[in-house]
Fold this sequence. Notes:
Layout: E1 7-10, H1 16-27, E2 31-36, H2 41-54, E3 59-62, H3 68-78, E4 83-86, H4 101-129, E5 132-137, H5 150-169, E6 175-182, H6 188-201, H7 205-213, H8 225-235, E7 247-250
Parallel strand pairs: 1-2, 1-4, 2-3, 4-5, 5-6, 6-7
Helix pairs in contact: 1-8, 3-4, 4-5, 6-7
Nicotinamide-adenine-dinucleotide binds next to helix 1, strand 2, helix 4 and helix 6.
Amino acid sequence: MSLNGKTAIVTGSNSGIGLGVARELAKAGADVVLNSFTDRDEDHALADEISKETGTNARYIKADMSKGDECRMLIDQAGACDILVNNAGIQHVSPIDQFPVEKWDAIIAINMSSAYHTMAAALPMMRAAGWGRVVNIASAHGLTASPYKAAYVAAKHGVVGMTKTVALETAQEPITVNAICPGYVLTPLVEAQIPDTMKEYDMSREDVIKNVMLERQPSKEFATVEQLGGTTVFLCSDAAAQITGTTISVDGGWTAL
Ligand code: NAD
């Protein structure tokens, strides 16, 4: 699978799943655009590292995905967008009657509305290029719910609905729009929670992973960022040209329960 000559923009890609997806797209030959709202030296260094490792032209562009105009600016500033991966996301856990308004607004903006703005800006570029792939990183929580995650579950269900809608709008064009729904993925964020949870439950690392974190994941294994990157590369391949408007779960069986 060669994505040589394609430009791939991955929102929220200076860590975790976004960075893993960007690395796999670059390994497949794409020139990736990394993004976050931080603009640190390390963010630019990550892009340099990917360029060196893969012989592609990786860049970093700062843009805050909570702001519609910055979402659109990211696409414009990249100058091309053959592959768009909407990945930026945050979480907040709270019962609905105590859910802080600013957290609700931020989750809806970053996890859902950003995909509206980036797709609106990117589709004309894909149409002009005669090819395009949109991959929205939703979640198992785009298909099912958990208590205390009202904003996240609402935003991720919204992303799945938006994915289907835009797929229908582009169905007769060489553009596909799909969502990947990960279960629990071993990112640095998740890894960092393991020691505290071990103390809290007085459990071994293995028991915390199997019985607390992966309680709802039947495989009892985390998905990896490499697997999500590989699924994204597959959705960009010719084999996936007729796959549009759907979700691919990478969740160890969670949504089969
Ligand atoms: P992470 O915290 O490692 O990554 C989140 C990324 O989003 C970071 O690069 C961060 O810089 C970026 N980001 C946050 N706010 C931003 C903003 N305002 N503007 C631009 N970038 C911003 O977390 P992750 O686990 O890699 O999550 C990535 C995506 O995958 C999220 O959408 C998340 O909901 C989804 N997801 C994660 C899991 C999991 O288990 N880790 C499971 C299902 C879905």
